[in-house]
Amino acid sequence: MIEAIGLTKRYGSTTALDHATFTVAPGQVTGFLGPNGAGKSTTMRMVVGLDRPTAGTVTVNGKPYAEHAAPLHEVGVLLDAKAVHRGRSARSHLRALAATHGIGRARVEEVIDLTGLGSVANKRVGGFSLGMGQRLGVAAALLGDPQTLILDEPVNGLDPEGVLWIRTLVRYLAAQGRTVFLSSHLMSEMAQTADHIIVLGRGRVIADAPVSEILRRAAGSMVRVRTPDAAALAEALRAPDVEVASVESGLLEVTGTTAPAIGEAAARAGVVLHELTPLTGSLEDAYLQLTADDVEYHSGGLPGPAVNGVPAHAAPAPMEGAAR
Amino acid sequence: MTAATLDPSGSVAAVPGRSAARPVRGLTFPGVLRSEWIKTWSLRSTVWSLGIAIVLMTGTTALVAWGGSTDPVAGELSAAELIGPGGYFAQLVLAVLGVLTITGEYSTGQIRSTVVAVPRRIPALAAKAIVLAVVAALTTLVGVVTATIAGMPFHDGLGVTLDLSDGETLRLLGGMPLYVAGIALLGFAIGALVRSSPGALGIVLGLLLVVEQVVAAIPLAFFDRLEPLLPSNAGSRLVMTQANVDALNAASVGVDLGPWQGFGVLLTWVAVLLVLAAVLLRRRDA
């Protein structure tokens, strides 16, 4: 359980985090999402006391991180893959961390096996690939068998197998009742792993909701209807908040009502339907919509998909994963 | 989501639940000390530089003794004084090691792992300082022994004898590990304040090699008074014969310091800088 209240961080005149208030609950994977520079890493660093907040408080499992008697048993954190001396071997790094809490060698070997580092554990970290570095970071996070895990961009630099491994791992950890707080700037990654999403834009929390809710918010819900008698159906659906758009001859997109309601209305009016498809906005669309005004660095010129609030097109729900 | 049943490596199930067999001892200072001890010996660069310090001490002492024994006009040296020049090199190596012990953590990002494991931070700084002091003193002690042995074949030629029952000989030999440990801690404290390897190395080596030597040459009374109080000028009195200390005091307009008083001044520098470093460590973002 992580609780942030009014958490604020300023660097000079730059506000990295602006009165962020949120709770990360146990037993689920909470995605922490936002464009680069939105303040995700800053927030996570403040949770474990690396940075001190300008204002506000953040507690983990009921206390500020530094006040726990055994911090590594409370929180495991992967901040970035480079928090390791390059000249030390992975095994020595883990043993040194473990020693602070009296964690034995057996556990060190356990996390080495678990993260698949066995073959390189005695090699110096300086020669590690980004992916290996991430695995070592995850190993360090798991060392204390903590109740809460904070992973900043864990799939960064991992190969497809590694991405799948992280996903499986975080879901498994959450299923054990642990708190898993995972950041990414990739919505698609979140769609695969998270139950709940907190979206950050320019240091402010702009959404904090279950994934399904975020999806529902995306572009409302739209239903695609194909019928040879479009005019009659449009007439039958007429209601104050229902909007019917004719995309092409015989194809309508209806917002403001549901697929069953349209089906029933069509049956009552005796209109034949050839297709009736509820369209859910993709998480990606929802994300772009939410953060459209809050991106720190806008790329200019290139025609991109739907940056302006309205998604280019709502796509059916399951989306392409990050594992390609 | 089917992820929980996916098991690409066959190892996810091995994430143990809270195993009752594993006692949770929590964060303790002896644990932090052990951690820093492991860190020290798991860096090849550290092991190398300690070895180099010992070789330099031994080799330099042998050269000095050999040179003295073949040059009848060389000044009189006691057996214990022979290790002085070697100790000078050892202090430089250990001062550099002291700096890198802490700045290396900042340059590599290791400091974040350290601070996450020891979020109150000060125990980590203290443990580092203690381990460094012990390692520096032990290394120098080994160097003193090997250097003394290396000088022995030349004792006859020099016309000196090693008398371990002599108080001054014991102070010169036994003081060297203490002095070098003090200088290593000075480097460490400056490294902790500056946090950048090049910056801190520049300050420490500049201080030891240049500033302390030339300060007396500045024709202002203030610098003349300051000169004996500089860390190494004061501390190195511990590894000088009483005759040399007296000569220094006579030549200086500043305060007169005995060997142990001088060492006390060095330790005061170290203590003040370490306290400052501790305060900043608590206040700065890691």
UniProtKB/TrEMBL annotation, chain A:
Could you name the domain of life of the organism this protein comes from?
Bacteria
Is Transport one of the keywords UniProt gives this record? Answer: yes
Q: Which InterPro entries match?
A: AAA+_ATPase, ABC_transporter-like_ATP-bd, P-loop_NTPase
Its keywords, alphabetically, are: ATP-binding, Nucleotide-binding, Transport
Q: Does the keyword Nucleotide-binding apply?
A: yes
Supply the PANTHER family for this chain.
ABC TRANSPORTER, ATP-BINDING PROTEIN
Similarity comment: Belongs to the ABC transporter superfamily.
Return the protein name.
Multidrug ABC transporter ATP-binding protein
What organism does the UniProt record list as the source? Actinotalea fermentans
TrEMBL record, chain B:
Give yes or no: UniProt keyword Transcription regulation: no
Keyword check for Transcription regulation, yes or no: no
GO terms for cellular component: plasma membrane
Q: Which UniProt keywords apply?
A: Membrane, Transmembrane, Transmembrane helix
Q: Which GO terms describe its molecular function?
A: ABC-type transporter activity
The superkingdom of the source organism is: Bacteria
Which stretches are transmembrane? 47-68, 88-108, 129-152, 172-194, 201-223, 260-281
- Which protein are we looking at? ABC transporter permease
What is the scientific name of the source organism? Actinotalea fermentans
